[in-house]
């Protein structure tokens, strides 16, 4: 596939990914329901109390649905990006970065469906143990760290895509330490970092949409001139 077509696909996928996350942010602010609460091990009673808060259960289901959609967009984006950067990074490096993204997608899917299973169990009086929350916390952290590896490798490809590409690489580098710090400090103190991680990731998609729309436009063939008799 020609580079121009890949750039158009990347621009569209980046736009959809950014818009989906924006929708998730609006839903969280409106309902206070988010899967973030379930990404940390807690007493079983805490999950039930959280779900009993007005609008939270609805917001959580909406958030997970949008996150499932986001998964498709960012997964497709990085698959196409690995093809676009194959010659720049080399097949081995691009393949490793893609493998890390695919691990992120798989763990993200497991996370969302496990949380929905926990919600279903709580709402239907089925048994739930502390182990459910502990395993979820492990899976969530491994998911995020797989994404850190992926974006670090892809950032070296962005460095070769001009000034805006270098800015995107810097944004991705900021995303990584935010995430690593989240995993080592107490959950109650990590809210600002969680917000920062989200902002950096979404900002990278917005800038990527601008970059690849620009690259696709630049590579468009010039219209042929015709002499009018």
The gyration radius over C-alpha positions equals 20 Å
Q: How confident overall, as mean pLDDT?
A: 90
Shape: elongated
Q: Helix content range of the residues, please?
A: over 70%
Indicate the structural class.
mainly alpha
Q: Helix count, per DSSP?
A: 8
Strand content: under 5%
Number of DSSP-assigned strands: 0
Distance between the termini: 38 Å
* Low-pLDDT segments: none
Kindly give the count of domains.
1
The H-and-E topology, N to C, reads as HHHHHHHH
Can you summarize the main beta sheet?
A: none
Protein name: DUF4386 domain-containing protein
Keywords: Membrane, Transmembrane, Transmembrane helix
Organism: Bradyrhizobium lablabi
Q: Care to describe what's here?
A:
Keywords: Membrane, Transmembrane, Transmembrane helix. Helix 1 packs antiparallel against helix 3, helix 1 packs antiparallel against helix 8 and helix 5 (91-123) runs antiparallel to helix 6 (130-158). The protein has one domain. The mean pLDDT is 90. It has 8 helices and no strands. It has helices at residues 3-31, 44-51, 56-84, 86-89, 91-123, 130-158, 162-182, 191-218. It starts with a helix and ends in an 11-residue tail after the last helix. It has 229 residues and is an all-alpha fold. The longest helix is centred in the middle third of the chain and has 33 residues, at 91-123.
